[in-house]
Design brief:
The protein has six helices and two strands; from the N terminus they run ααββαααα. It is mainly alpha-helical. The longest helix has 18 residues, at about 125-144.
Length: about 140
Protein backbone atom coordinates (compact mmCIF):
# COMPACT_ATOMS: atom_id res chain seq x y z
CA UNK A 1 0.00 0.00 0.00
CA UNK A 2 1.35 3.44 -0.84
CA UNK A 3 0.84 6.66 1.08
CA UNK A 4 -1.54 7.95 -1.57
CA UNK A 5 -5.25 8.05 -0.79
CA UNK A 6 -7.62 5.81 -2.70
CA UNK A 7 -10.02 7.61 -5.03
CA UNK A 8 -13.69 7.51 -4.04
CA UNK A 9 -16.20 5.44 -6.01
CA UNK A 10 -19.95 4.95 -5.65
CA UNK A 11 -19.87 1.16 -5.29
CA UNK A 12 -21.01 -0.19 -1.95
CA UNK A 13 -22.40 3.22 -0.98
CA UNK A 14 -24.63 4.92 -3.58
CA UNK A 15 -24.62 1.78 -5.75
CA UNK A 16 -25.16 -1.29 -3.58
CA UNK A 17 -25.14 -5.01 -4.30
CA UNK A 18 -28.95 -5.00 -3.96
CA UNK A 19 -29.22 -2.17 -6.52
CA UNK A 20 -27.10 -4.11 -8.98
CA UNK A 21 -29.10 -7.32 -8.45
CA UNK A 22 -32.32 -5.43 -9.20
CA UNK A 23 -30.78 -3.84 -12.32
CA UNK A 24 -29.48 -7.16 -13.61
CA UNK A 25 -32.71 -9.03 -12.92
CA UNK A 26 -34.66 -6.35 -14.79
CA UNK A 27 -32.37 -6.71 -17.83
CA UNK A 28 -33.73 -8.37 -20.96
CA UNK A 29 -31.28 -11.14 -21.71
CA UNK A 30 -27.52 -11.51 -21.71
CA UNK A 31 -26.79 -8.59 -24.07
CA UNK A 32 -28.69 -6.18 -21.83
CA UNK A 33 -26.82 -7.49 -18.76
CA UNK A 34 -23.52 -7.13 -20.63
CA UNK A 35 -24.36 -3.48 -21.46
CA UNK A 36 -25.27 -2.87 -17.81
CA UNK A 37 -21.91 -4.25 -16.66
CA UNK A 38 -20.07 -2.01 -19.18
CA UNK A 39 -22.07 1.02 -17.98
CA UNK A 40 -21.25 0.24 -14.36
CA UNK A 41 -17.57 0.00 -15.31
CA UNK A 42 -17.72 3.54 -16.71
CA UNK A 43 -18.63 4.78 -13.20
CA UNK A 44 -15.44 3.31 -11.75
CA UNK A 45 -12.72 5.95 -11.41
CA UNK A 46 -9.39 5.16 -13.01
CA UNK A 47 -6.89 3.96 -10.45
CA UNK A 48 -3.97 6.41 -10.25
CA UNK A 49 -0.70 5.13 -11.74
CA UNK A 50 0.87 5.17 -8.25
CA UNK A 51 -1.26 2.11 -7.43
CA UNK A 52 -0.58 0.21 -10.66
CA UNK A 53 2.39 -1.88 -9.60
CA UNK A 54 3.15 -5.57 -9.26
CA UNK A 55 2.36 -5.79 -5.53
CA UNK A 56 -1.26 -4.78 -6.18
CA UNK A 57 -1.80 -6.94 -9.28
CA UNK A 58 -4.35 -9.71 -8.93
CA UNK A 59 -2.87 -13.00 -10.07
CA UNK A 60 -5.22 -15.37 -11.86
CA UNK A 61 -6.72 -12.68 -14.09
CA UNK A 62 -6.20 -12.83 -17.84
CA UNK A 63 -6.43 -9.02 -18.06
CA UNK A 64 -4.35 -6.75 -15.90
CA UNK A 65 -6.19 -6.03 -12.63
CA UNK A 66 -4.96 -4.00 -9.69
CA UNK A 67 -6.62 -4.09 -6.28
CA UNK A 68 -5.76 -1.54 -3.61
CA UNK A 69 -7.27 -1.34 -0.16
CA UNK A 70 -7.16 0.52 3.09
CA UNK A 71 -8.80 -0.18 6.43
CA UNK A 72 -10.29 2.63 8.51
CA UNK A 73 -12.03 2.05 11.82
CA UNK A 74 -12.40 -1.64 11.02
CA UNK A 75 -13.99 -1.02 7.62
CA UNK A 76 -12.31 -2.02 4.39
CA UNK A 77 -12.22 0.31 1.42
CA UNK A 78 -11.25 -1.06 -1.98
CA UNK A 79 -10.31 0.41 -5.31
CA UNK A 80 -9.56 -1.63 -8.37
CA UNK A 81 -8.97 -1.12 -12.04
CA UNK A 82 -8.32 -3.11 -15.18
CA UNK A 83 -7.10 -2.57 -18.71
CA UNK A 84 -10.26 -4.31 -20.05
CA UNK A 85 -13.71 -2.65 -20.25
CA UNK A 86 -15.75 -5.70 -19.30
CA UNK A 87 -13.40 -6.49 -16.41
CA UNK A 88 -13.80 -2.93 -15.09
CA UNK A 89 -17.53 -3.61 -15.06
CA UNK A 90 -17.10 -6.95 -13.32
CA UNK A 91 -14.92 -5.25 -10.70
CA UNK A 92 -17.82 -2.94 -9.86
CA UNK A 93 -19.98 -5.96 -9.02
CA UNK A 94 -17.39 -7.11 -6.50
CA UNK A 95 -16.81 -3.63 -5.05
CA UNK A 96 -20.55 -3.16 -4.55
CA UNK A 97 -20.56 -6.33 -2.46
CA UNK A 98 -17.55 -5.62 -0.24
CA UNK A 99 -16.92 -1.86 -0.03
CA UNK A 100 -17.15 -0.40 3.47
CA UNK A 101 -17.71 -3.73 5.19
CA UNK A 102 -15.74 -5.07 8.13
CA UNK A 103 -13.80 -8.35 8.05
CA UNK A 104 -16.68 -10.38 9.51
CA UNK A 105 -19.17 -9.00 6.96
CA UNK A 106 -16.74 -9.72 4.11
CA UNK A 107 -16.29 -13.32 5.25
CA UNK A 108 -20.06 -13.76 5.75
CA UNK A 109 -21.17 -12.34 2.38
CA UNK A 110 -22.47 -15.15 0.13
CA UNK A 111 -20.75 -14.18 -3.11
CA UNK A 112 -21.89 -17.32 -4.96
CA UNK A 113 -25.57 -16.55 -4.36
CA UNK A 114 -24.93 -12.91 -5.32
CA UNK A 115 -23.33 -13.96 -8.62
CA UNK A 116 -26.23 -16.38 -9.26
CA UNK A 117 -28.72 -13.56 -8.73
CA UNK A 118 -26.83 -11.45 -11.28
CA UNK A 119 -27.18 -14.17 -13.92
CA UNK A 120 -23.70 -13.60 -15.34
CA UNK A 121 -21.35 -16.41 -14.47
CA UNK A 122 -22.78 -18.86 -17.03
CA UNK A 123 -22.11 -16.29 -19.76
CA UNK A 124 -18.51 -15.51 -18.82
CA UNK A 125 -15.56 -17.28 -20.37
CA UNK A 126 -13.81 -19.64 -17.92
CA UNK A 127 -10.84 -17.26 -17.72
CA UNK A 128 -13.10 -14.26 -16.88
CA UNK A 129 -14.95 -16.32 -14.26
CA UNK A 130 -11.64 -17.44 -12.74
CA UNK A 131 -10.40 -13.84 -12.73
CA UNK A 132 -13.54 -12.69 -10.94
CA UNK A 133 -13.03 -15.41 -8.33
CA UNK A 134 -9.37 -14.36 -7.95
CA UNK A 135 -10.45 -10.80 -7.10
CA UNK A 136 -12.94 -12.11 -4.52
CA UNK A 137 -10.32 -14.44 -3.00
CA UNK A 138 -7.83 -11.58 -2.70
CA UNK A 139 -10.42 -9.42 -0.91
CA UNK A 140 -11.25 -12.28 1.47
CA UNK A 141 -7.54 -12.83 2.15
CA UNK A 142 -7.12 -9.13 2.99
CA UNK A 143 -10.02 -9.41 5.46
CA UNK A 144 -8.40 -12.31 7.33
Amino acid sequence: MTDATLPQHPFGTEITANDIVKQMQAANGWEDRYRTVIQLGKKLPVLPETFKHEELKVSGCESQVWLAHEAQDGQFHFMADSDARIVRGLITLVLAAYEGKNAEEIRAFDIDTYFEQLGLIAHLSPSRGNGLKAIVEQIKALAN
